[in-house]
Amino acid sequence: MAREDVLVTADWAEENLDTPGVVFVEVDEDTSAYDSGHIKGAVKIDWKDDLQDPVRRDFVNQEQFSQLLSERGIANDDTVVLYGGNNNWFAAYAYWYFKLYGHESVKLLDGGRKKWELDARDVTTEVVKREPTNYVAKPLNWDLRAKRDEVEAAIGVKNLIDVRSPDEYAGRLLAPAHLPQEQSQRAGHIPTALSVPWSKAANEDGTFKSEEELRELYVGEAGLDEGKATIAYCRIGERSSHTWFALRELLGYEDVKNYDGSWTEYGSLVGVPIALGDEPGTK
Amino acid sequence: MSDSCAAPDQDLALPASVDLEKETVLTGTVVNDEGELVQGAYVRLLDGTGEFTAEVVTGEGGQFRFFAAPGKWTLRALSRYGDATGEIEAARGVNETKLAVSR
Questions:
Q1: Which InterPro entries does the protein's record reference (chain B) (predicted)?
Q2: So what's the ipTM on this one?
Q3: A171 CB near a chain B CB, below 8 Å?
């Protein structure tokens, strides 16, 4: 897969704001960002209200996803361009959903909202109204999603990539540093997991690094075994979607899964092995 | 506990639930050449080795805030007015700093 199949530049986006069949979607945790100004014509998806099941701890199912996209006016044959704040974490998380539910044409806006703002490109507060569609999602593709038992079985067997910050990996912090640190889970990482913070895959302006730089990062520096399957995780599964995107969509590794239960689940499990400190640890 | 990893609104007062005897808070404002508060600046917290730790976006008050640990940290701000870098030796409690961005 080529970079241009999965990423669009801000210039491309600006030239295609009115192209029929191209739908821009802003995905954020904090949708007040969208309300204060968004890319012209873009609809919004709320990471929490729209993508998580309101009762169970799980994400929306096939029917809920179909209903969401139908309401937003997105058709099965549209090219969806996703962007958002937080260096596209939530946009990458939504991208993973679109792939999980079999959407054909979906891309990320490279650099997301950050690059768009730093470039001082136009945003608008115009209300966007799209005609509802009859979107039909495909059944969930389990080739892209890892669950806890599979993760525990992968210790010492598959590549595990922990994409949290080095302090979270080592167990010195329990959450990213913009959040208070009181948490119920144990600290540390899954034994044998390689530490490659998601941020290493991105430039300062939020764009993804080149494929050459990414390969050097994961294989050269971190020691990812290209002959093995890979599972990426973080705290709740969105930063690891960013890395999942880099590994599977940009570098083209076929067997890459995102563990969306991530550390909030793993660090709460009774009896599973945990490694502390800066080294991966052993099985 | 937050159930997401996104940065909260940076203009809000420090929540009463935050225990300043336990937390190490790095906070401050971003200003431009004219000394005006900069909204929409991207502020990064880098650890003692220069590794990315977190990033927030300043609100109307130009304010940013991180929850970290005592020690040496670097703050890096990007904005449409330019960039700035600041070093901070943080202790438990509230640590304040100002970042002046310029081209």
A1: DUF1416 (IPR010814)
A2: 0.72
A3: no
